[in-house]
Specification:
338 residues; alpha/beta; binds phosphoenolpyruvate; binds manganese (II) ion
């Protein structure tokens, strides 16, 4: 349920309501908006109906939350969430661009890419140090050495580092280096991992599982939010369908659908979403037109030599062209790209 407080209700009223919620063994999520403060009450609240919240001082109304996801829902928070990690801002009027290789491969590769994408307007640097690969024989990433190289790239360029954490036991290590923790598509329903990143205060980029519905994506986000981390970015990265002309099928209707139902910002990944470098520019532009709050793009100095995902990776020249097109589309839809 949502408890809506009267505008200007004193802090003591809020504290009394929170104490009442906790006494019922439920969890309060206090959301302070510009106009009103609401408390999303989560947990098994079947026994809480008629528990007298309406009569507590400062309470304006008590409403059910109809969506299965609660803290993620726009019913609870009408204002859009803006996630900030250093120079990277996702949500709001400007569109944040995260660019970089699929995997960190060497100092020269990651630092060189960081300088190149920064000069073209990216504010986040992607690069996997821990890679979730379909085959155990494929390159698994440089692990902690890769994280150190990402930190060097940040020190030189100031870009925010977006990197994946694949296992619960690695969260503390990866969170020491990352400005944004990426939870990959394969781990979208790894609930212990979601809770673990939820216990950090590092922003999380949560990718949609290739076989997950959008409602399941929102329920996965709910695990992170309920654990206490409100800085969640959703990422559409394509789903598996019968279609084979692209690696995945990239459903862009996800973007406005999500915006109507959740306050969380939405990023699109046209690299994994298509699997083909030649399709990235068009689908990045289409994502911006559909209202995406950010893009995550695989960029490499020499894609044909990339250790992973070379076929869908663009080079610096293609990234420059893509940024030009996306800037023009952004302007047409009332947004901007730095
Ligand atoms: C990646 O970003 O390189 C990656 C592995 O993505 P996904 O989890 O979407 O497959
Ligand atoms: Mn990749």
């Amino acid at each position: 349920m949502i408890i809506v407080m009267h505008a200007g209700a004193p802090q003591t009223d809020l504290e009394r309501v929170v104490a009442h919620i906790e006494a019922l063994k439920l969890r309060p999520h206090v959301i302070v908006g510009t106009e009103r403060t609401v408390i999303a009450v989560v947990g098994d609240d079947r026994d809480a109906t008629g528990s007298g919240f309406e009569t507590l001082p400062g309470v304006a109304s008590v409403l059910p939350i109809l969506a299965p996801y609660k803290v993620a829902s726009r019913e609870v928070q009408s204002e859009s969430t803006i996630v900030k990690a250093g120079p990277l801002v996702i949500g709001g009027k400007s569109i944040g661009v995260i660019a970089g290789p699929c995997s960190v491969e060497s100092r020269e590769q990651i630092v060189g890419t960081a300088h190149a994408v920064k000069s073209l307007g990216a504010t986040g640097l992607r690069g996997g140090a821990f890679k979730p690969r379909t085959s155990p024989y494929s390159f698994q990433g440089m692990k902690e050495r890769g994280l150190e190289l990402l930190a060097e790239a940040r020190a030189e360029t100031g870009l925010a580092i977006v990197t994946e954490v694949v296992a619960t036991e690695d969260v503390t290590l990866v969170a020491r280096y990352a400005d944004v923790l990426q939870v990959g598509a394969r781990n979208m329903q790894n609930y212990r991992l979601l809770e673990a990143v939820g216990h950090t205060q590092v922003p999380v980029l949560l990718k949609r599982g290739p076989a997950a519905t959008v409602e399941e994506l929102l329920l996965a986000a709910e695990y992170i939010l309920d654990a206490g981390n409100r800085q969640v970015i959703l990422c559409e990265r394509g789903i598996r369908t019968f279609e084979t002309h692209t690696r995945f099928t990239l459903p862009l209707a996800t973007v406005p659908w999500l915006h109507a139902r959740t306050h969380l910002p939405v990023v699109v990944d046209p690299s994994h979403g298509t699997g083909h470098a030649s399709l990235v520019e068009s689908m990045a532009a289409a994502s911006v037109a559909a209202g995406a709050d950010g893009l995550i793009i695989e960029v490499h100095p020499d894609p044909k030599c990339a250790s992973s995902d070379g076929a869908q990776t663009i080079d610096f020249a293609a990234f420059e062209r893509m940024m030009g097109v996306c800037r023009r589309v952004a302007e047409a839809v009332g947004r901007s790209i730095s």
